[in-house]
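A quick aside before the break. I want you to see a complete sequence-to-structure record at least once, exactly as it would be stored in a machine-readable document. Don't worry about memorizing anything.
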Amino acid sequence: MSNFLEQYRYLWPHTSLQNAPNWQVIEDKRIFLRNMPESLEEIALDSRWPGFFPSPICFVTTADGTQVGLEKVVGPSIVNRFPYVLALSFCILPLSERHHIRRAFTNMLENSGSVALQFLPPGEYLDRTMSAINTIPEEKTNSRIAYSGLSTRKALTNDAPVFEAAYMVYEASLVKPSKDFDGNPIYTQPWIDVGSHRIYFLEINTIQLRQDIAEGRSQILWRSLPVWQPQHELQGLVSVDGDAIEDNGYKKGYTPHYAFPSPGTIAFEADHVENGMAVKYLPTLPEDQVEVDNDKARWPCFFPSSAGMITSWSPDGHPNLMPCGSTTIVSRHPLIITPCVSYAKINERYAPRASLDMIRKTGRFGCGVPFINEVILNAMKYAGNISLAKDPQKVAHAGLQVESDDWSPVLPALPVHFDCQVVKEVSLGTHIMFIGEVQRIRVRADVTPENPIEWCPCPNVVSL
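That is the input. The structure line, written in tokens, reads:
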């Protein structure tokens, strides 16, 4: 991490779990264990997430014709590719001073039906925006932009204000009822309530990217995984019969040190330049957006996302692993994790996944938190490109040990693991969103305040 980003880093845990309330010490496994859910009284005392999951942050603005609103969102996520849909969740129940109702902003959002989601470079402008949000209470969200002192202009496709300092802007509107590629209805409502939060589904119609970035004179740098150093052995011996499967088909690459644009990414194909921003408009119909080519079907621009290691049991008892970049936390009470799994038959990149049926049949999945480590990265690359249907020993061939558990396969090399119960699934067009209520959290004993997991929730922008 560059020295410039040091002030934005997040460290977990904040205090030792050794004697923390509700955490058990399992000595023989060298782990801490916590059963969920928590009581409302516990959350009122401390509503910080009880376990670590890496999530980016962004700023969202909206305008309803009379007022403008500004909010920070933790864990924005691209959840569907065709149509290109973004999910944002906002608290709708009073849980604590940290998690309180965002009704002034969501009223504006629901009245206007549109937002501008934007990213500011680390430094003064980001700090001033954060200060405005932290200082001005939510019921006066219309005063936050003025308090920040930052200049704005109107979005290109809606009335939301856009910060002149933003280097990347996604303009989006609440989704409308439609059908997926199989003719099944999707988006009968533009939002769903899940526990303490409301998840809004917004279709991205325009992307603005600062011209110097679009032309390759500057780069966005994103570290998509946290950093952590195991203090005892990463895992036990991994034994496997036979060799790993060689698949000569399309292979998805992965690096935790992501640079955009770069030789490993697609070019940003702008329609024109305006206000110093390269602008790309996306068609309104998903069938007009589809690029059958695997590479062209990638996201049309960078969007910061982290990854969850989604585990499940096959019907014949084999452990399965699917690294999933569209995974985020959307609710605080109960704590909800939502991986989004492809089900549409578009191409090799977007095709039905074996994990989909496994999770559906059991109604359960695990979500592990990966970190920057050669063993973990190699496992993500293998598991992300090989189906369990082709390699029943996929996880072992990926180089990871599995501990059997009644709920979901556990990867002991990972610092944090969540056991989740599927309480709902939502069809989004090309992906299914599994609403997974966390039932139990498992943390390695060498994750401590003295040896924390380190995460930076914002990208950096550098000139070349």
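Two observations worth writing down. The first helix runs from residue 40 to 45. The domain at 214-266+298-455 is CATH 2.30.110.10 (Pnp Oxidase; Chain A). We'll return to this after the break.
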